Request: fold
Amino acid sequence: MQTHSSSVVAVKAARALAELLDREFATVEEYTRTVERNGSALRRANPSHASLQNVMHEIVGVVADAEFDDVDAAKAATRAAIDDAVERVENGKRRAAAEAADWIDDGATLLIHDYSSTVLQAIEEATLNGAYLECYVTEARPRYLGRKTARRLAEMDRVDVHLTTDGACGHFLPECDAVVIGMDCIVEETLYNRVGTFPIAATAEKTDVPVVVVGSSSKVVDGGFVFENDFRSPSEVLREPVEDIAIENPAYDATPTDLVDLVITDEGQRAP
Reply:
């Protein structure tokens, strides 16, 4: 969860549940309780990941809401639910990336924030289709995931990569055609994403640079989901504690969707 996008986390969590299929259970009830307990533990690992929450609810629901004749039947249903969930997440990412790749113009200069496997896939597809791109990548605290993004982009042909600090976005945005970011989730009129997204989006509005969000439609939530921020270790900001200084290190921030110009998902392009 510290180094991967939320879609990857959801897939890994789904596959982690499959480990239960190799264990022995005396009754269907024992198996069901174990699936529910492990699903809850995985959901609690990061309450902010909408895709993780949705995948766990879906898989556990298949087991908890049905009546099975024996443990083998319950396991078979679990396996099918895991496979369906993983396929939907991965297909959603793939289609969203393809939609975004079609949107990216040859010769575009993009500002990329954070690490999004879907955004990276979109850029790679665009270059494979013949586009030459210039990308300014922010470091993206916490954990500097933007550096990981820059390294991945540098491995691609036809991409000229610049790595800079989040705070320097105002300096480089006038040179950019668009800001392209992934999403942890969109809940009603708020985009939740890696901290630093809000000030970049606000600065982009002032500099007339469009902000484009790319991700699976499963991350767009109409309601019923309460986002919980994650506060990282203070040592990521300052290695040694300093007396009388409270070190704050939030992982995400909340960006009003009126600062977003376009949302690209597996369902196509739309206004936020």
